[in-house]
Structures are given as C-alpha cells and as structure tokens.
Amino acid sequence: MPEITLLGTGGMLPLKNRFLTSLYYEHNGKALLIDCGEGTQVAFAQHGLKLSRIETIFFTHLHADHVTGLPGLLLSLGNTGRSECLPIYCGVSAVTIIKHLLCVTGGLPFDVQIIPINEKKPQEYQFPDIDPLLTVRTMPLDHRVACLGYQIELGKKPEFQPDQAKALNIPVQFYKTLHAGEDVWLPDGRFIMSSQVTGAPRKPLRVTYTTDTLPIPQIADFAQDADLFICEGMWGTDDKKDSMNEKHHMLMQDACRLAVKAHVKRLWLTHYSPAEKSPVIYGDMLREIYPDVTISKDGEHITLK
To answer: Does residue 131 carry a catalytic annotation?
Structure first.
C-alpha cells in the first residue's frame, strides 16, 4: 500500500517550522518524489524517510521553491551507496536549468537521466520496477510559467477467491500464479483462467497533486474520485483573490471548491504563503465548503488502502 508524506507545505520561502513543498510517495520499498525545494534533504531526516528509496523525481515547474533543493539532495543520495541511474522528469522548458543545477554536484556515483515532458498536453508513464500497476499522468496547469499537475494511480489486483479454487480442485501451487492474473494449464489437462478464481476488478488508488496554478476547471476532471487530492492554497481570505489571479495561484477556498466538484475522498492543502503563519485558523470556514479538508503541516502522512 502506498505511503504518502508531505515533506514540506510552504511556498516561496521556508520558515523555521515549514519547509518548501515536496511530496514523497512510497510503495513496495521504492519512492517517487515530486518537487525538491530548498532543504528537502533535511526534511527527509526530520520525518524519518530514507533517501535511498527514491526511484525517480518529478518537477512541476521551474521556480526556485520547487527545484533548488535538488543538488543537495543528489549529493546526499550519492552518500547512500546508490549506483543505478536516477531518472528525473520535468517539463521541456525546465530541462536546461535542471542540467545547470547538476553542474554543482561534482562527480555523482550514479548517472542522472533527464526525461522531458510535453507541457502542453497530458502524458502517461508506467513504472513496472515499482509496480506493474503503477501509472503517473500529467496535465498542464495555468501558472506564470509552464507547470504540470500529477496523478499517481496504483491499480489493485482482483482479490483471489480460495473457495472457488478449491471448488475447482486446483492444486495449491497454482494459486500464486492465478492471483497474479496469469492463466494456467493444470497437470490433468484443464485450462484455468485467472478470472475463474478472482473477484471483480477493484477501484485503483489515486493521488492527485496540483500546485502552482489558477483553479482551472480541468483540475476537477483530473482529480475526479481521487483518494487523496493535494492542492495548493496560498491564502485563506477572499481579499487576496485578485492578487492570486494576477500571480496565477489559488486560495484555500478555491481548492475546497475543486475538491467538491471532483468528488475526492480527502483534500490536503499545501504551498502556503510565508505570510500565512497559522493556516489552521481557517479550518472551520473551509470545512463548510468541503468537510474532509486537512490544513496540512510538514510531515502530514497517510497510508492509502
């Protein structure tokens, strides 16, 4: 089951109790990291997470509060004994700057492969080394620079039905293969399909992550029925709406309204303005819009099942 942790929940500037926005998603002992602001490697230590489990890194966009922690994190990752290549996914417009950031890391003991993402239309990637049923999708957001939203989907295998297998007199040694979705020939000559001994398809687990952006309606479609929707909420007062529109960010209330439209199970807010020292004060007001909102703090964690 995936373990999700917000390493930081701040935007623009880190505070003494709030690092910059970064998302850690771990499954099967391997992890995806989205964004890597200044101090991300320190946040790993604070929250008891292992750098060595990072399988790949994604970036939403090329602003300092989302990328400048990369050199330090890579240097620390090199000290974990890593030798295999690290893929880094980023928008096409970010490739050159990410390469420049790598220049200050010296000689890393592993290679880095930068994989450009089309910033103008949705993309989809599979990660069979983590799980054959793991898919990462992107969508273009609306920020002052090209910016990407991410959806991480983990498919669930149908549940194995041992009673059905017993009723068909299937030898126990074939159970694991059938549960994995493979059909088998039995020693007595019978052909057994996996679907004969597994239940109905199960809904996948979806995590949607969108920051920094205007609250465009496409986000609600992208986050539809998500188990966890992580969305920016820079300010909690309506008098900041014009400023947020100008800077292509959104209010906490905007995120809550998107959560309602998307019918998500739960919403985590993130990417608070450094001037919003106590975003929890807006909790009651926000819950009137969307009851299952969490005004996240650094280290916010959940295991999705």
So the answer is: no
